[in-house]
Amino acid sequence: MTATIDPQTTIHEGRPTTHQGILAWVTEVAELTQPDTIHWCTGSDEEWEQLTASLEATGTFTRLNPDVMPNSFHAASDPTDVARVEDRTYICSVDERDAGPTNNWMDPAEMKELMRGLYAGCMRGRTMYVIPFVMGHVDAEHPMFGIEVTDSAYVTVSMRVMARMGTEVLSRIEEIGEDVQWVPALHSVGMPLEPGQADVAWPCNDTKYIVQFPEERMIWSFGSGYGGNALLGKKCYALRIASVMARDEGWLAEHMLILKLTSPQGVTKYVAAAFPSACGKTNLAMLKPTIPGWKVEAIGDDIAWMRIGEDGRLWAVNPEFGFFGVAPGTNEHTNPHAMETIRKGNSVFTNVALTPDGNVWWEGLENTPAEATSWKGEHWTPEIFEETGELSSHANSRYCTPIKQCSILADEYDDPRGVPIDAILFGGRRKTTIPLVTEARDWNHGTFMGATLSSETTAAAVGAVGVVRRDPMAMLPFIGYNAGDYFGHWVGIGKDNDAAKLPKIFYVNWFRRDDEGGFLWPGFGENSRVLKWVIERIDGQAAAVETPIGHVPAPGSMDIDGLDLTDEQLAQALAVDAAEWRAEIPQIQEWFEKFGDDLPAVLWSELDTLKARLDA
Ligand SMILES: Nc1nc2c(ncn2[C@@H]2O[C@H](COP(=O)(O)OP(=O)(O)OP(=O)(O)O)[C@@H](O)[C@H]2O)c(=O)[nH]1
Ligand SMILES: O=C([O-])CC(=O)C(=O)O
Ligand SMILES: [Mn+2]
């Protein structure tokens, strides 16, 4: 039986909407996908309990010991569904040119026909959840609504952590009326159940499509239940679709953390930083400074939406409501604030290990258990790891935790206007070449740094790990349009606004290695020393040396009091090696050539300037 939109078919206090546009779309989706039941999500605690209970019943969730991790669950995905699938991600713009050379493209009509075939009957035997959500504040000047329809209770539970959702949001949509802007986001795991067929713990489909239709501001996702593939408010909306909106409306949707930094003198600065997936955003956003008197408060750990304010400054908000953080490597030393946040519970842990006492564990965490159940559901011990190298947790395993639990969350997090950004950092994971910190000469030079950003690939996306690739502004997988136009948009922000009021741009690299392969810089809390230098540069206090690639800290200008690092190590971390940079030039050249005439001319001039400075 196919469900129709009838309050009788809904459970709890969920109700269909009075918004005719949304009702029509949900009806159309239900007719196509044929779910048994339709559930309009309220976001209530009772709903959470009902959903998590049903996830326990299907074996998707294991409830953790409430004494150690209250109201929290362990989930293990299908071993083939563990990360974003970039090769299955499409930007289906009307014109192929608008997807640009960095995105997969297919004609939207063709893609729709193909996907309608996949979606036909794909929710049979399942409940279809309708999730009204808003990215950013419901009281924002431009509230960014969406409706995710999904056949995954796991996604529904996770969306409740990651976005403001439920009845309150739906009521606000209805209040604004039929003209309200909202993004339809359709998701299915792609595994219908025939009558009598038992469900599996992690339904998914070998065929996967993560598709954005930029002109229609619409998202269709099929076949995956994981992270950025399935929680459609996150990468699909808040980055791919929002970047298109931002291009059209003159703002920026970026893969950036936002933090508030307060000096011992009580001076406050706001920093945004773009690092590729699994390259340190969450860690920096929650940093515990090792230098006395300095304080960091978190505002966001993954996405920043930035608009020029009436005062000419660039104001940033975090559109999300939770953290979807990389678990491995997170511990009391690297990220004590994340640990404190997680321990409050109300979290979903995916693809980590489960310990016999009902807790979670992952590589890098303290107190290695004598035994555990690995993310693959297998018996795991430290000895097994010694012998076989088998890890207890997937490298891209994640915790999904409400942001409100973060003890160092800045009050400004809840301000719909956001915060004025003083500095933007670009950073990647590079063993060589890129110094610990470099200051751009101006906005265009900073845009060049962002546009040429390079990083070693990580486990956050399916594919080889450790391969150096260009990841412009850490947005390679997330720019929803032609990246050449995106660079032009960045250049335009600099041209159309008062340079003195825009943030200063810096390029950082926590991941440079010595000859033995060890990190040259201790990172984590010690990164506060770099933040301090950045702030002091902005305030004209710290000294810098001009180099061909920009300004780097002058000897003695960085606070290294109490740091366990030799002068030689610091010098190596900060070094600008002309030979390494000369080797970089042809790679940048080749990268730029991809964009043909769509690359802004100022970026070619920046490359010429770099060459000339290296040769001088
Ligand atoms: N060596 C070193 N490793 C770091 C540093 N900061 C973060 N890491 C490691 O990098 C990995 C990813 O860090 P995250 O902060 O979760 O990365 P992210 O950018 O938030 O990742 P996404 O959520 O995928 O966007 C973890 O294993 C960290 O331990 C650092 O300063 N130095
Ligand atoms: O989107 C995801 O699955 C997780 C994430 O933050 C990223 O990969 O940048
Ligand atoms: Mn991310």
UniProtKB/TrEMBL annotation:
Its cofactor is Mn(2+). GTP binds at residues 278-283, 398, 429, 524-527. Substrate binds at residues 84, 226-228, 277, 396-398. It catalyses: oxaloacetate + GTP = phosphoenolpyruvate + GDP + CO2. GO terms for molecular function: GTP binding; kinase activity; manganese ion binding; phosphoenolpyruvate carboxykinase (GTP) activity. InterPro entries: PEP_carboxykin_GTP_CS, PEP_carboxykinase_C, PEP_carboxykinase_GTP, PEP_carboxykinase_GTP_C, PEP_carboxykinase_GTP_N, PEP_carboxykinase_N. Residues 25-247 form the Phosphoenolpyruvate carboxykinase GTP-utilising N-terminal domain. The active site is at residue 279. GO terms for biological process: cellular response to glucose stimulus; gluconeogenesis; glycerol biosynthetic process from pyruvate; oxaloacetate metabolic process; propionate catabolic process; response to lipid; response to starvation. It is found in: Cytoplasm. PROSITE patterns: PEPCK_GTP (PS00505). Its EC number is 4.1.1.32. Pfam families: PEPCK_GTP, PEPCK_N. Pathway: Carbohydrate biosynthesis; gluconeogenesis. The keyword Cytoplasm applies. Keywords: Cytoplasm, Decarboxylase, Gluconeogenesis, GTP-binding, Kinase, Lyase, Manganese, Metal-binding, Nucleotide-binding, Pyruvate, Transferase. The keyword Kinase applies. Mn(2+) binds at residues 235, 255, 302. Residues 251-613 form the Phosphoenolpyruvate carboxykinase C-terminal P-loop domain. Catalyzes the conversion of oxaloacetate (OAA) to phosphoenolpyruvate (PEP), the rate-limiting step in the metabolic pathway that produces glucose from lactate and other precursors derived from the citric acid cycle. Monomer. Belongs to the phosphoenolpyruvate carboxykinase [GTP] family. This is Phosphoenolpyruvate carboxykinase [GTP]. It comes from Nocardioides exalbidus. The lineage of its organism: Bacteria, Bacillati, Actinomycetota, Actinomycetes, Propionibacteriales.
